[in-house]
Structure formats: C-alpha cells, structure tokens
C-alpha cells in the first residue's frame, strides 16, 4: 500500500485519557471496519508517568471505513473525555519548517515555493556584474563636473 493511500485510511484520535490502551481503541473503532494498525505515541520524556501523549492513530483497511469512523466518533465520549477524531495529516519532515535546524531559505520547500524564473536570475546577475568596482575609480563620474547638488 502506498504512503498516500495509507494516509487516507488513517485517522487521528485526540483527547485520550491515560487509561486508554491499544485494546480500548481497537474495541471502539472495530464497528466501522477492519482495523489494520493502532499507534499511541509515547511521551517525549522517557521517565514520565504517562503511558502515551493523549492521542493516537487508527489505520483501517479501507478509506471508506476511516471516513465513517470520523463521521460517527468525532465529538463522542471515551472514558469520560470528549475525543477529537479527524483524518490524519502527513508527518512533517524535521528538516522542513520553523522547527528545523536549517535556515528557512535553504530548505527545499521554500525554494520550490519562492524561486524566481531563470530570466530574473540572469537579470539580477547582470546587475550585480555592473555594480562590481572596475579598475577605474573615476568610472561613472564623467557627468559630475561640479561638486554639490545639481543646479535646476
């Protein structure tokens, strides 16, 4: 199964109580279709008393099952807490965006979005070449025969 197809079959479940387990999610979502995989991300701090980060992902066999689960379970209650159920979004690359250690203008996504045409690049390079100092320090001073502001 391709990554894009797999993403269409995966839902995000947020607002989970710490008592919720993989088994609990399986039992809650099996009425909507065959559950392929369930993930409950662990907390960032390894010595934390929390079992998971309060959200999880449920992957179904068919995209239609995922849509039906979203329609029926969003806003429902699980262990006394209202849960949020939505389509899963693709995971961001850690080298992209504001959390990256790479400068934003050096990232591939930025360049593809804000790159200029070849014609503009050539024009900018030509103007840079014109601005470079030449051997003659008096270059472009031919019209200045008098010091001070130009008379009107």
Automatic annotation (TrEMBL):
CDD domains given in the database record: RRM_PPIE
Record's protein name: RRM domain-containing protein
A Pfam family hit: RRM_1
Superkingdom per UniProt: Eukaryota
Record keywords, A-Z: RNA-binding
Domain RRM: 9-90
Sequence segments annotated as region (Disordered): 116-152
PROSITE patterns associated with the record: RRM
Cross-referenced InterPro entries: Nucleotide-bd_a/b_plait_sf, PPIE_RRM, RBD_domain_sf, RRM_dom
Biased composition (Basic and acidic residues): 116-143
Organism in which the protein naturally occurs: Aspergillus pseudodeflectus
